[in-house]
Design goal:
The chain has 184 residues and is mainly beta. It has two domains: 33 residues, no CATH class; 146 residues, L,D-transpeptidase catalytic domain-like. It is built from one helix and twelve strands. The strands form three sheets. Strands 6-5-4-12-7 form a five-stranded mixed sheet, with no helix packed on it. A four-stranded mixed sheet has the order 8-9-10-11, covered by helices on one side. A hairpin with a 5-residue loop joins strand 5 and strand 6. The longest helix has 10 residues.
Length: 184
């Protein structure tokens, strides 16, 4: 399969050369912090037969895998905290296998948080379990400090939302993209 378009960019950032290539809406960054080779996520997983997003709260990372099991893109993830003071309890992201059931734009906001008023920004929200969603944030850390959602960089959430995730529709038999939240 020939790429629809390809271009390269050279940057001097201490990490070598950055090259960007797109193959039918799938973007791979090589030589960047998000290169798939030597990423903190496995470069390949057993063929899932469908696209899947895996979140590893213990390592604070997420990965998007193609249907043939190849890691396409990864990034930093901030999952739910062990304890949230305002809720007086655990806010951990529920572990297990889920599906995206709703996906929004850059205008997504929380109906729940901050507690009592709502309105917290959740750009490119992709709900997978009740009120838990994957979404963009400017508060992405190598620790689990959210109220249960999985925060990622806004650009990563936008890419997932518009170039990877499928919300339920007739074409996918109303089964949105699979999301696996691994153990803490």
């Amino acid at each position: 399969m020939q790429p629809k378009w390809m271009f390269g960019v050279l940057l001097s950032c201490g990490l070598g050369i950055l090259s960007l290539s797109t193959y039918s809406q799938i973007i791979e960054l090589d030589g960047s912090p998000f290169a798939t080779q030597n990423a903190p996520m496995p470069e390949y997983i057993r063929r899932p037969a469908e696209k899947v997003i895996i979140v590893n709260p213990a390592e604070h990372v997420w990965g998007a895998y193609s249907a043939n099991g190849k890691l396409i893109r990864w990034g930093i993830a901030t999952a739910g905290a062990d304890f949230c003071r305002d809720m007086q309890g655990s806010c951990r992201t529920k572990t297990g296998v889920f599906r995206i059931y709703s996906a929004g734009s850059d205008n997504c906001v929380s109906n729940q948080f901050p507690l009592g008023v709502g309105g917290a920004s959740m750009p490119y929200c992709m709900y997978f379990n009740g009120s838990q969603a994957l979404h963009g944030s400017n508060e992405v850390e190598y620790e689990n400090s959210s109220h249960g959602c999985v925060r990622m960089h806004v650009d990563d959430a936008k890419w997932l939302r518009y170039h990877f995730v499928e919300a339920p529709n007739a074409a996918n038999q109303y089964r949105g993209t699979q999301v696996i939240i691994q153990s803490y």
